[in-house]
Design brief:
The chain is built from 2 helices and 15 strands. The protein is mostly beta strands.
């Protein structure tokens, strides 16, 4: 359903894009935190668990001791600002993205009324830009690794602590950006019939390695989304606010992301989607602000073992 885009030097403008600034959908969020897509069997639940408690206790994992989720998604998008820079001369273009995500639940353990589940995530994302010859410089391949420990409670609350690493490579496979991010989050889910909702409050620190700019920062974020299912159709809007404070430069920023997905489920494992997202960032400094509107479609494959 949520993409990392790291800006190389472009059109003589020093890149200042925040890799966390743009989410195409809730799916990007779940990919980054080793979680499974909320869209499964017409409820906002973890597909690895067959519990009716949303993203809570992985009951099936307790029985089998292991869970595995595989996801593949191919997206074609049109953006009015693919560079995420308001000062860029290129103000429109297309993006073809392909992502593969693997999530492993390494058991589930009872801890006095809560369930603890260690989760390992491995993902690859590749983006190709078209519509303008200069956009090729944005083509990026990203490798994501993450490990999370999730404490899940029967009342719908969960606590997540983890660490993730993402590495971005240019089209010639040169490492252009890397970040390691420890994080702590608290989440709440609620499901009633065809309606489900999810909120997540997180705090993370990003240790970065980038040749163009020091981007180490502390970030706090709030995410809220819900899903309504009707027969084969699912509609999933979301809203995310994030505040970032950079530790090695005089910069702070406020980023808002909102979007909506309309999905049609052919089978439990095959979906077609329409995607609409809007991102806006306000920050101090030069060339840090931007607004961006993306729309397009996707084909998504999901499998649970």
């Amino acid at each position: 359903m949520f993409l990392i885009l790291v800006m190389p030097r472009l059109f003589g403008v020093e890149p200042r894009n925040n890799p966390e600034a743009r989410y195409h959908s809730l799916q990007e969020y779940f990919n980054r935190h080793s979680l499974v897509s909320p869209e499964s069997r017409s409820t906002f639940e973890n597909p690895i668990s067959k519990s009716d408690l949303g993203l809570q206790r992985p009951i099936e994992t307790k029985k089998h001791g292991f869970g595995y989720y595989f996801g593949f998604e191919s997206r074609f998008l049109y953006s009015n600002n693919p560079t995420s820079l308001d000062s860029s001369p290129v103000q429109k273009g297309g993006i073809w993205e392909n992502s593969i995500n693997n999530n492993f639940i390494l058991g589930a353990y009872d801890l006095a009324g809560a369930t603890f589940s260690p989760m390992l995530g491995i993902g690859i994302n590749q983006s190709t830009h078209f519509g303008h010859e200069d956009l090729g410089v944005l083509d990026t391949s990203t490798l994501r690794l993450s490990f999370n420990g999730i404490f899940q409670f029967t009342n719908g609350w969960s606590l997540r602590a983890g660490i993730g690493n993402s590495s971005d490579f240019d089209s010639d496979m040169t490492l252009s950006y890397q970040q390691t991010s420890p994080s702590l989050a608290i989440s709440k889910t609620f499901s009633q019939g065809p309606f489900s909702t999810f909120l997540d409050i997180s705090l993370s620190y990003h240790f970065t390695d980038a040749s163009f700019l020091d981007m180490d920062r502390l970030e706090s974020a709030f995410l809220w989304g819900f899903q309504i299912s009707f027969k084969h159709f699912e509609i999933s809007p979301y809203l995310r606010f994030a505040y970032g404070n950079y530790t090695n430069q005089n910069r702070h920023e406020f980023t808002a992301n909102t979007g909506m997905e309309l999905s049609y489920r052919f089978y439990d494992w095959l979906l077609a989607k329409l995607l609409f997202t809007y991102s806006n960032r306000n920050a101090n400094g030069i060339n840090n602000d931007f607004s961006r509107l993306d729309s397009g479609g996707a084909i998504s494959l999901q499998a649970n073992f």
